Amino acid sequence: MHVSISLELYYLIELHAQKADKNALDNKASRDWVDSTFERLDREIRDAASKLLTHEEALKSAVNQLEEDVEGKLDRLELEPLKEYLGGLLS
Fold first, then answer.
1. How far is CA 15 from the centre of its chain?
2. Which residue from 19, 45, 70, 72 puts its CA 20 to 30 A from 27's CA?
3. Given a cut of 70, is residue 1 above it in pLDDT?
4. Average per-residue pLDDT in the chain?
5. pLDDT for 25-56, tens place per residue?
């Protein structure tokens, strides 16, 4: 009787261990899913980086154009003598 109970207990412990292993396996992500997810993330990150680079280049171009426009304009200190000179010519 004692051997029978021990065998039944051993059998139940083994079944429980197998069930635990199966549950652990069921909860793990498949290699294919992980690979495809990382490939998709890699594509999306590369697309985002490309878009950011495009926007950065457009922004740099706009800043350069603005700097050129500002440098080409006369400031008030330069305009006042010109205004007086032209006023003197017209009077």
1. 46
2. 45
3. no
4. 81
5. 666 777 888 899 999 999 999 999 999 999 99
Six-digit token string for 86: 């032209």
pLDDT at 5: 67
- The string of DSSP codes covering 28-66 is SPPHHHHHHHHHHHHHHHHHHHHHHHHHHHHHHHHHHHH
The DSSP 8-state label assigned to residue 18 in this structure reads H
In the chain, where the domains are located: 2-90
The label of the residue with tokens 């412990």 reads 13
From residue 27, give the alpha-carbon distance in Å to each of 23, 82, 89, 91. Answer: 6, 81, 90, 93
